[in-house]
Specification:
The structure is a single chain. The protein is of the alpha+beta class. It is built from four helices and nine strands. The strands form four sheets. It has a three-stranded antiparallel β-sheet, with no helix packed on it.
């Protein structure tokens, strides 16, 4: 399916721009074979893909796939699951083994070193988020809520506490969040961290 989507993307690009000709009457935009095979880790495993190429002779124009950008080695969906596994306590050394079981032994770009680098980036992003200046921000409504996940860590349930603010124009902004574990107690249809 991915290869078919890439072929459709290239076909559309060539179709839209194929009518442009140079001074000798040759097409400026043409299909140009396939790139060298590369391994890409998807939610269903790691696959080897030869993506179609385009030769665009027009100055200041270049075809770049929106589906499979150059140098991409893992799907954004795979990248989204990595912080969740980290928050759930999977150590950086165990990522490769765990993801190898889920995504195949060739899980591209997911070595312990890559995971360590990613966790440092997540921490840096989180620190910047926590330290941002909200003194000039105006919110007409602020609320706090907790989201309990069905996954239990032994007797504890994972809970994310979220603070949201609403601006005058109705846009919402995440102001703060924190993930905590604790023994959950049920009151009515809701769970609360004890």
């Amino acid at each position: 399916m991915l290869v078919e989507a890439l072929e459709a993307e290239v076909h559309d690009y060539v179709e839209r721009n194929g009518g442009e000709r140079d001074e000798d009457g040759r097409a400026e935009v043409v299909r140009n074979g396939n790139s060298r095979a590369r391994k890409v880790t998807l939610g269903s495993g790691t696959v080897e893909i030869e993506s179609p190429r385009v030769h665009d002779r027009r100055p200041a124009h270049r075809f770049t796939s929106q589906i499979l950008p150059p140098y991409m080695r893992r799907s954004p969906k795979v990248s989204e699951v990595l912080p969740v596994l980290y928050l759930r306590g999977l150590s950086t050394g165990d990522f490769q083994e765990a993801l190898g079981s889920l995504l195949g032994e060739d899980a591209a770009g997911l070595s312990a070193t890559a995971i360590t680098r990613l966790t440092a980036e997540w921490q840096s992003d989180y620190d910047a988020f926590r330290k941002r200046d909200l003194s000039e921000s105006e919110f007409v409504y602020v609320w706090v809520d907790g989201i309990h996940f069905r996954v239990r860590l032994e007797d504890d349930r994972l809970c994310t506490l979220v603070v949201l603010g609403v601006r005058r124009d109705g846009t919402k902004e995440l102001l703060q969040w924190k993930t905590v574990t604790g023994r959950a107690r049920r009151v009515g249809s809701r769970y609360y961290a004890a």
